[in-house]
Hints:
The complex is a heterodimer.
Chain A: H1 9-18, H2 28-36, H3 40-53, E1 56-63, E2 70-76, H4 83-91, E3 96-102, E4 108-114, H5 117-131, E5 136-138, E6 142-143
Antiparallel strand pairs in A: 2-4, 2-5, 3-4
Helix pairs in contact in A: 2-3
Chain B: H1 2-5, H2 14-23, H3 33-41, H4 45-57, E1 61-68, E2 77-84, H5 90-98, E3 103-108, E4 120-126, H6 129-143, E5 149-161
Helix pairs in contact in B: 3-4
Amino acid sequence: MDHRADLTELERRLLDRYQHGLPLSATPYADMAAALDVPEAEVLAALDRMQQLGVLSRVGPVFRTHAVGVSTLAAMAVPEARLDEVAAIVTSFAAVNHNYEREHRFNLWFVATAASDAELAEVLDKIEQLTDIKVMPLPMLEDYHIDLGFTLQWT
Amino acid sequence: MAAVLEPLCEGIDATDRRIVLATQAGLPRVSRPYHQLAADLGLTADEIMSRLQRMQRDGIIRRIGAVPNHYKLGFKGNGMSVWDVPDADVRVLGQRIGALESVSHCYHRPRHLPHWPYNLFAMVHGRDRVEVFMHVARIAELLGDSVRSHDVLFSTRILKKTGMRLLAE
């Protein structure tokens, strides 16, 4: 599952250098190739291979969370015996796009999105009604993250 | 999919939305990807690029880049660290924590007393839980006496993760 050792020098340099972004140009792959001093075909092949390995999700735009619409993180404290049943109910909502089990008394964590605050509140209300368990909404009040990307550790 | 997205996109118009949908899974892997998209969408490459640039300037797009899968690169630990700090200091402290390399998300969120006293959330990544705890210890050190209590929640199961990338990275 950890594919770091399988990557070539070129593949590592591509990830290191371009995870933070690439200039908007009509020929992005040729630009990468020129910067790394290799033929464009090698860059294209390296990106394809990394995507096959799964270490590269994609090359493209990264959209900011909360940029459009309304969304919130929410948590529920679900009795262990009901976890699967409640998780299935939460997951069944189209408005829910992430749903995680976490090790805590609050053991079910999900993100719900909607077009408006009223619609979002309706989704959370409905989940409470169907499960008979309180939903704790934790909307983002302020975002402090400065996106520098990760320093990838190759050893 | 377009029908679901329609009401969500207040900051972008119908053409932007088509570009978002056509690029959210990645750019075409050809020499001139924007020209290929232009042919597919009936637009010009210049228009696509200038719209992407505008969305980037408006903050709808964070960046255009190579997006690594950190899990497959050995970052197998991720813990949601949660902190109870004074509300008056949360912005200054959050900015300090949000700049750390081990932190991928850092948000101010409301408390729900008495069950949930935490108002600062930082998603911490490491190769394993031990490394995550080391990063959390470093955050505790940085926050110092401001911290009244904290916790780290590890995920044990992903029950749903859909690729609505327009809304969630």
